[in-house]
Amino acid sequence: MFPKLAEDLAELPALLEETRAYAERILTGLDARPVATGPVEHPPAALPEDGTGLRGALRTFASRWEPGFSASAGPRYLGFVTGGTTPAALAGDWLTAALDQNAHGAVGSSATALEREAVSWLGALFGLDRPGAFVTGATMSNLVGLATGREWLGSLSGGSVAEDGVTTPIRVLSGTPHSSIAKAMSVLGLGRRNLVPVATLPDREAVDVAALERELAAGPAIVVANAGTVNTVDFDDLRAIAALKSRYEFWLHVDAAFGGFAAVSPDFAPLLDGWAEADSVCVDLHKWLNVPYDSAVQFTRRPDLQLRVFENVSSYLGAPADTPDFMHLTPETSRRLRALAAWFALAAYGRAGYREIVERNVFCAKEMGARLDRGSRWRLLAPVRLNVVCFTLAADATTERVKEALDAVARSGEAFLTPTVHHGTPAVRAAFSNWRTTAADVDRICTALGA
């Protein structure tokens, strides 16, 4: 055995304890750590010839790279829609690496059985009783849903896109689609130009269902309905869209990347009324479930069509069984057991724990919105519907001035927020999804914003 490997193996308990202590220092120091920092620039180092062993690697990382890492795991990182990692999810993720299971199939391990249990728990959390699988994030979850919808459209004429390729253009209809939809269409050969924008309601990001119906009259399509848009967490009328299936042929995919977690609260669950009628559903987990990157779940009504798209048959893997292994249902063949972190999180905190996190985050978002609305420096661009506050400068809201304001907040180390454009106006998004965030953090964020 290579000497450094042998030394690390001999000292493994002590090295793991040192790593644990290092991680503990990072996590307990999040409150004082700058929420965002400019990247530390280093000239590329040469590949080590012999290496320094784990202890040396830890020292090098701590001095060279860790100072440039953000506090994105902490309570005042409001950029994008970024959850943290709960203690249980962190433990599950560490054990995922320690056990190092390839969750591609059921041979020789109970890893896939655990994944099925985790999927069923998520289905119960969301009120979705259907098969599903873990994937890397919302982009891949949306891709799986669109790929299965593509196969369904091909089957209408007796064909199979999985076998024959796309022979006729396939339209994808949506009001305010996430950028990952166009990306998935590009990967799937559907073509970004076949994403048809459908009119939205006045001053809303929700689709105009009457306009959608007019588009559906032109023939079968995939409809991407939104359960929580990026800028304002607007929800399409999922019940009304689902009702159109009695008159038109279309595959209904619901992109509920973070809005799906509204289901855990009786106060917000009505926003999702009708999503149980969808053919496929995307929910991201490294957002509001607060498990480590990368993790999402996809649900489907048609696992048979999903199998047709993703099956991977070979002499050494065999054919799919009656209950197909996950390698036959997702883009990956070799698969990290990312379900374990989610399983630990759900086992540890249950439905009640996630209801509390969601409701506290929404309370924080509404508190921030109310404080900005009372002040004179900023103005809201939309009502705070769930966990995102969309706002801009009250006067002279140019791209440059908004950026300057956000840069100043980032330099203060108090918070991190990301810019956007809403209905042509340069704006800011503050997205609350971290399990640690409290009203005290809202006060610090608003103070940094001058509100």
Automatic annotation (TrEMBL):
GO molecular function: aromatic-L-amino-acid decarboxylase activity; pyridoxal phosphate binding
GO BP annotations, alphabetical order: amino acid metabolic process; antibiotic biosynthetic process; carboxylic acid metabolic process
Modified residues annotated as N6-(pyridoxal phosphate)lysine in this record: K287
Keyword Repressor part of the UniProt annotation: no
Keyword Lyase applies: yes
UniProt cofactor(s): pyridoxal 5'-phosphate
SUPFAM superfamilies in alphabetical order: PLP-dependent transferases
Keywords: Antibiotic biosynthesis, Decarboxylase, Lyase, Pyridoxal phosphate
PANTHER family, per database record: GROUP II PYRIDOXAL-5-PHOSPHATE DECARBOXYLASE, MIP05841P
The family this protein is said to belong to: Belongs to the group II decarboxylase family.
Protein name: Glutamate or tyrosine decarboxylase
The species this protein was found in: Amycolatopsis saalfeldensis
